[in-house]
Write a structure and sequence with these properties.
This protein has 421 residues and is an alpha+beta fold. It is built from 16 helices and 16 strands. The protein has two domains: 246 residues, 2-Layer Sandwich (BirA Bifunctional Protein, domain 2), CATH 3.30.930.10; 91 residues, 3-Layer(aba) Sandwich (Rossmann fold), CATH 3.40.50. The longest helix has 17 residues. The structure holds adenosine-5'-triphosphate and magnesium ion.
């Protein structure tokens, strides 16, 4: 008896051929854009010491409280699969003293993240992010540049149904006054808040603004706006961000409910929302984290970044613009063992020379091979059997107009390279 087959882990998924072409298209579009704007790729590990995330994301956040994949390894180190990229990039920036030569650095990274959330459409336990960060720029230009990059990426991918929501979360100078005002309202609303928000109320009151539970949302309708509590510096910063976005023609909405689920944000926070995804409406989120590098043991260096939900973006792009699979330029249909051995030599030489090539490796009728070439969308088929070998000529058939020509087997590879290169 055979064993039952093993299934993948709940909340994890395979990205299969047919989808990967689209993922590559998105990835290439993003990389081109990042490079247009001078961002450099950084690759960080998918595991870090648990402390890094606990200290940066914050003990009282959903991620650290209940979503991290944390375990002790055989050497008794407490490790976590990364739930996001920013903390690791900061760690790397500090560890390699990248600030010493030039504090201004622009990075991007693309890869998997892990959060143990309840799996549903658009929400996975292993998901992917496209991430960008700017270090060392306090000026609001950095904030505007990142929001503009998101807008431009979506435009290049022909995703239109998106809105940028922006807010300011203030700084350690002005945020306490806002929290105080908010706490008054939260105390009054306590009877209708969900159990999570009751806890947040005392430990991290701003997070209540972010709660998706309808009762909490309703109770927060009359919440004060943090914009009214900003100190002069934060107010001026935010005004420059919104004015510059407007000058550049980047559409946005000021959204005073937007707080974002991580502790490290200061000043500008933003999210790209779309109507195309149903309940999981955020396709990207980001913000400024001026205190994070300092709090992780580095110098006081301002920074800002965003993360795009790659899975969600792929879902939107798939719905609007399917990406074609690259078909072989040439399919070699060989008949008989001798011809097949020759065909294999030609195919490998052509493939090595950069020509899109396919062939049938086993014994199949010409009819079956022609069908196969057709199914794969091959541009031309080279037919070679024992009689062609004898005659010294193979047949090259154009699949579009069905015309055929004979080509001499002597020097055939060079000829084909000339034809297809
Ligand atoms: P959400 O409100 O949807 O939980 P978030 O605020 O937790 O999002 P961020 O930490 O800001 O998300 O991550 C940036 C982006 O990553 C999100 O806007 C979303 O598109 C994507 N993302 C976050 N969590 C998941 C997940 N579990 N599965 C798929 N994509 C996700
Ligand atoms: Mg979340």
């Amino acid at each position: 008896m055979s064993q039952p087959s093993i299934q993948l882990i709940r909340g994890f998924k395979d990205i299969l051929p047919g989808e990967t072409e689209l993922w590559q298209h998105i990835e290439r579009t993003a990389i081109d854009l990042f490079e247009d704007f001078g961002y450099r790729e950084i690759r960080i590990p998918i595991m870090e010491k648990t402390n890094l995330f606990a200290r940066s994301i914050g003990e009282d956040t959903d991620i650290v409280e209940k979503e991290m994949y944390t375990f002790t390894d055989r050497g008794k180190d407490l490790l976590t699969l990364r739930p996001e990229a920013t903390a690791s990039i900061c760690r790397s920036y500090i560890q390699h003293k990248m600030y010493a030569q030039d504090p201004v650095r622009k990075f991007y990274t693309i890869g998997p993240m892990f959060r143990r959330e309840r799996p549903q459409k658009g929400r996975y336990r292993q998901f992917y992010q496209i991430d960008a960060e700017i270090f060392g720029v306090a000026a609001p230009f950095a904030d505007v540049e990142l929001i503009l990059l998101l807008r431009t990426l979506f435009e290049r991918l022909e995703v239109t149904d998106t809105t940028a929501h922006v807010n300011s979360l203030g700084c350690p100078v002005c945020r306490p006054r806002f929290k105080e005002a908010l706490t008054g309202l939260l105390d009054a609303a306590a009877p209708v808040l969900c159990s999570d928000c009751l806890r947040r109320k005392d430990r991290n009151p701003m997070r209540v603004l972010d709660c998706k539970v309808p009762g909490c949302r309703e109770a927060m309708q009359g919440a004060p706006s943090i914009i009214d509590y900003l100190c002069d510096d934060c107010r001026a910063h935010f005004a420059t961000v919104t004015d510059t976005l407007a000058q550049l023609g980047v559409p946005f909405e000021v959204d005073k409910q937007l707080v974002r689920g991580l502790d490290y944000y200061t000043r500008t926070a933003f999210e790209i929302q779309t109507g195309a995804l149903g309940a999981q409406s955020a396709v990207a989120g980001g913000g400024r984290y001026d205190g994070l590098v300092g709090s992780l043991g580095g110098p006081e260096i301002p920074a800002i970044g965003f993360a795009i939900g790659f899975d969600r973006l792929a879902e939107i792009v798939a719905a609007t613009s399917p990406v074609a699979v690259r078909p072989p330029q040439l399919f070699i249909a060989a008949l008989g063992e001798t011809a097949r051995a020759k065909a294999f030599q030609w195919a490998t030489t052509l493939g090595t020379a950069g020509i899109g090539i396919a062939m049938e490796y086993g014994e199949k009728s010409l009819k079956a091979q022609m069908k196969q070439a057709n199914r794969q969308g091959a541009g031309q088929v080279l037919i070679v059997g024992e009689s062609e070998l004898q005659a010294g000529n193979a047949v090259l058939r154009n699949m579009a107009d069905k015309t055929q020509v004979e080509i001499p087997i002597e020097g055939i590879v060079e000829k084909l390279i000339q034809t297809f290169a």
